[in-house]
């Protein structure tokens, strides 16, 4: 049995169904990220786990103990759950030592030692203990908030978008430090975030939500490479999603003939490629004669972004010249990330090279295609 188990959790606010039958298991000592667009139900789910809200129906269990069964619920202060909020929520009038020790009994003889232990754990100088929160940087404040959450040795820690207020560089370093700390401590953790890169790098398990439902749960690699539908595919990163005709583990689509493995879906289907799977080489001059399977695209726009630029291409010749019924013939535009020294000028004709297999989206409705059969 999972350490944390949610079974058929439902919550309605008036006419709005915030959570619609959530089932989720979290293993002891693991890190789970819950992601989704605004209004998907992430915060409501976190509040129900924390005990600051109750479900209308369903069951929540932690370590074999039932914390909520419908409207019957164990109070938040008895759940043994630590919380780190988006802004840290430190008490501005208390010192750092008083903030960290807030949840520890004042008469506990080991209280001061525990506070110093936590400062070392989050890699902060003990000299900061006398300061107030406004005398610390944003990253330091988030580490203090984490230390405060860990002070009573909670069974579970909830992170509610704790890095979103930090600048980009500090956010990445703080996230890595917190991730390493929680792993070393063996603390079961749930992170709620709208940042897909944060979820993929932080978690052992990712759960994607939309409109109060869990769309897919799995490892970061599984969800990124094998999403269940277009929404999951696009939410977890840039995705090129196109209709294709299938035959014998191959797909003919607007970007040419793509290997799709051993899956045998009904044809036509929708397939997904990640932009990093598409390689480019100059089409002119041709080093070898073009074949009917070659696909060419012209660079129509470039967007300089420093270390990573974006180029937009339009397919000019290849399988995309086939007409899809009910649609105008053919132009397929897509964007790719490239390093600045690998960014071709607008107007350059490029040959496309597909690396690795495409992924068939099992829960996508394919547009009927008239692409020619694969030979």
TrEMBL record:
<protein>
    <submittedName>
        <fullName>Iron(III) transport system ATP-binding protein</fullName>
    </submittedName>
</protein>
<keyword id="KW-0408">Iron</keyword>
<dbReference type="InterPro" id="IPR027417">
    <property type="entry name" value="P-loop_NTPase"/>
</dbReference>
<keyword id="KW-0547">Nucleotide-binding</keyword>
<dbReference type="InterPro" id="IPR003593">
    <property type="entry name" value="AAA+_ATPase"/>
</dbReference>
<dbReference type="InterPro" id="IPR050093">
    <property type="entry name" value="ABC_SmlMolc_Importer"/>
</dbReference>
<keyword id="KW-0410">Iron transport</keyword>
<keyword id="KW-0406">Ion transport</keyword>
<feature type="domain" description="ABC transporter">
    <location>
        <begin position="4"/>
        <end position="236"/>
    </location>
</feature>
<keyword id="KW-0813">Transport</keyword>
<dbReference type="InterPro" id="IPR015853">
    <property type="entry name" value="ABC_transpr_FbpC"/>
</dbReference>
<dbReference type="GO" id="GO:0005524">
    <property type="term" value="F:ATP binding"/>
</dbReference>
<dbReference type="Pfam" id="PF00005">
    <property type="entry name" value="ABC_tran"/>
</dbReference>
<comment type="similarity">
    <text>Belongs to the ABC transporter superfamily.</text>
</comment>
<keyword id="KW-0067">ATP-binding</keyword>
<keyword id="KW-1003">Cell membrane</keyword>
<dbReference type="InterPro" id="IPR003439">
    <property type="entry name" value="ABC_transporter-like_ATP-bd"/>
</dbReference>
<dbReference type="InterPro" id="IPR017871">
    <property type="entry name" value="ABC_transporter-like_CS"/>
</dbReference>
<keyword id="KW-0472">Membrane</keyword>
């Amino acid at each position: 049995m999972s350490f944390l188990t949610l079974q058929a959790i439902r919550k309605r606010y008036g006419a709005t169904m915030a959570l619609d039958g959530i089932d989720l298991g979290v293993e002891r000592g693991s890190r789970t990220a819950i992601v989704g667009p605004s209004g998907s139900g992430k915060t409501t789910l976190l509040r129900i786990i924390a005990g600051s809200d109750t479900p209308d129906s369903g069951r929540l269990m932690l370590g074999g103990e039932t914390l909520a069964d419908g409207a019957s619920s164990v109070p938040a202060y008895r759940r043994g759950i630590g919380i780190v909020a988006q802004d840290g929520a430190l008490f501005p009038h208390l010192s750092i030592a008083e903030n960290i020790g807030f949840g520890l009994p004042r008469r506990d003889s080991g209280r001061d030692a525990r506070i110093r232990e936590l400062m070392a754990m989050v890699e902060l100088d003990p000299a900061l203990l006398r300061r107030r929160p406004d005398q610390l940087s944003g990253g330091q404040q988030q580490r203090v908030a984490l230390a405060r959450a860990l002070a009573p040795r909670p069974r579970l820690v909830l992170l509610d978008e704790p890095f979103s207020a930090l600048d980009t560089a500090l956010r990445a370093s703080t996230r890595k430090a917190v991730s390493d700390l929680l792993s070393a401590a063996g603390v079961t953790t749930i992170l709620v975030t709208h940042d897909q890169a944060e979820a993929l790098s932080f978690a052992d398990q990712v759960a994607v939500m939309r409109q109060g439902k869990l769309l897919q749960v799995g490892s970061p690699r599984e969800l990124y490479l094998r999403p269940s539908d277009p929404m999951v595919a696009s939410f977890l990163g840039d995705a090129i999603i196109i209709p294709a005709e299938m035959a014998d583990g191959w797909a003919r689509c607007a970007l040419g003939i793509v290997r799709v493995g051993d899956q045998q879906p009904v044809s036509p289907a929708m397939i997904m490629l990640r932009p990093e799977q598409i390689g480019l080489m100059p089409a002119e001059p041709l080093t070898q004669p073009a074949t009917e399977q070659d696909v060419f695209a012209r660079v129509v726009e470039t967007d300089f972004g420093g270390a990573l630029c974006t180029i937009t291409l339009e397919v000019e010749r290849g399988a995309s010249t086939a007409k899809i019924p009910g649609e105008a013939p053919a132009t397929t535009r897509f964007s790719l990330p490239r390093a600045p020294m690998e960014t071709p000028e607008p107007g350059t004709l490029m040959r496309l090279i597909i690396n690795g297999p495409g992924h068939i989206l099992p829960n996508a409705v394919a547009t009927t295609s008239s692409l020619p059969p694969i030979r």
